Amino acid sequence: MFMNFWRATHVRALLQFKIFKKALRLASWASKDPDLTQGKILNVMSTDTQQYHFMFYFINFMFIAPVMVVACIVLLLLDIGWVSLIGIILLFASFPVNGVVAKKMGNCQRKIMFAKDKRMKVMNEMLLGIKSIKMY
């Protein structure tokens, strides 16, 4: 587990470094995409690299989780008996509900990202305005 965390942290730092290095070389006027703003670059550096961090950290659970679920079901059946099947059925029946909730959370996260982009764009314009006023 520690090694996964170590690797995940290194991958996140490497990705942030590469994105930052690319952002420094990319001039805002040279961009062909008018929607490419510093806010979007900052979101990529923070949010998307955090998602890679989580992926590397929890990748082992993708392989271990099915084995753990089967082992827990067997132990419940041996310990409690057939009554444990009710709980197991309820557990698996809740999976579609979790999918719906996860989809709604993803939509909310997307809206939050757009709001952050707008905020960063406004702040950047405000700071450029202040800088131009101070020059004159």
Question: Summarize this, please?
Answer:
With 136 residues, the protein is mostly helical.
Which labels suit this protein?
4 helices, 136 residues, single chain, mainly alpha
How would you sum up this structure, described in words?
The chain has 136 residues and is an all-alpha fold. The protein contains 4 helices and no strands. The protein has helices spanning 2-25, 38-79, 84-93, 95-135. It is elongated, with a radius of gyration of 23 Å. The model has no long low-confidence stretch (mean pLDDT 83).
Q: What is the 3D form?
A: elongated
Strand content: under 5%
Number of β-strand runs? 0
Question: Main beta sheet, described?
Answer: none
Mean model confidence by pLDDT: 83
Kindly report how far apart the N and C termini lie.
57 Å
Radius of gyration: 23 Å
Question: How many helices does DSSP assign?
Answer: 4
Helix/strand order? HHHH
Give the uncertain stretches in residue-range form: none
Structural class: mainly alpha
In helices, the fraction of residues equals over 70%
SSE topology:
Elements: H1 2-25, H2 38-79, H3 84-93, H4 95-135
Helix pairs in contact: 1-2, 2-4
